């Protein structure tokens, strides 16, 4: 569980009681269907889409599919899934997959997705580990959104990015542009690899390597984001050079042994100086090596940038991104452990997103209980717009309105083609 308390106390035991209320009154079926059906431009886009449900006691149902919004609503309210995952659009309706030859049943399209999980940063955060998050490490997710969002827009030309908080310790990005949905596994893998700078398993100490005495423009751009956050995040919040063990970890990222030795001499007793002092000394030593010690400089010219990137650059699960038929948790699920709703986030206002203020299931049900207003007012306004879901729903609506413009143009094209015949 997260170390910060959520806005309303949540007890996982209440899930069976509250989920039916949530799915009946609060789940935004209309906007959700508008998104996942992409305006019905492609006739079978929704009916051939796979969903999976995780029910109580970890009962897992794959290859769920629905004929329309009403069918989806009915099935979700009947099953009350603890988790909903979204998969690919297939050649056939997923619920009929057993009636189709395996070779014929193929995943065709899906959003290009990215999964960033805080557990992948455990080797560089000192406040938490595993599923825990706190305000000291959450800045890693803010940095990730800023870097990945900009790269996807500026380097690949994608426009329709839906960022979603996972409800506990991570974030997801759904790239919904038509060209992104049609990408092959190889192309998806290439995009994910392009965005991957931190590489190597648990046993690899140095995970960032910049070569050829030049830094790629995309990494230069990412460094601008990192530099604005690094002092506050790594130096102050994480105290990343604050004791002997942490200091050894940082110095282990410097390739030149002579430079490491000089830094040891600068520091004296490791615990006697602050992380701020040690970091400034390290940066100065590397800068001085440019003119005073060409050998040190040759090996460690990018040491400062490599350290900063290793401690802050987004860590992607490439396997999630490259598979067309890989399922990913749906927006507007409720995380069963925290009770938090998987809400959309505004990348332009990501600095102000607070995971500890995301509404919980119990809080939303309490807000429904306390709802005032006349009967006419209640009928006019969707329930989710009268609760703490109102703000994240506005983020989702803004995203949808921009996306809808693309398929309205597509429908006009299709009607023009039909008129020609």
Find the count of extended strands (DSSP E, 2+ residues).
Answer: 9
* Helix and strand pattern: HHEEHEEEHEEHHHHHHHHHEEHHH
Q: Spans with pLDDT under 50 lasting ≥5 residues?
A: 1-7
User: If you compute it from the alpha carbons, what radius of gyration comes out, rounded to the nearest whole angstrom?
Assistant: 24 Å
Residues in helix, %? 40-55%
Structural class: alpha+beta
Principal-axis shape: globular
Percent of residues in beta strands? 5-15%
Mean pLDDT rating: 90
Major sheet attributes: 5 strands, antiparallel
Description:
- This protein is α+β, with helices and mostly antiparallel strands.
- It is 45% helix and 11% strand.
- It has helices spanning 15-26, 29-37, 69-79, 139-154, 178-181, 185-194, 217-237, 244-251, 257-267, 275-292, 294-300, 303-312, 318-322, 361-369, 375-380, 390-420, and strands at 49-55, 59-64, 83-90, 107-109, 112-117, 161-165, 170-175, 328-329, 344-345.
- The chain starts with 14 loop residues before the first helix and ends with a helix.
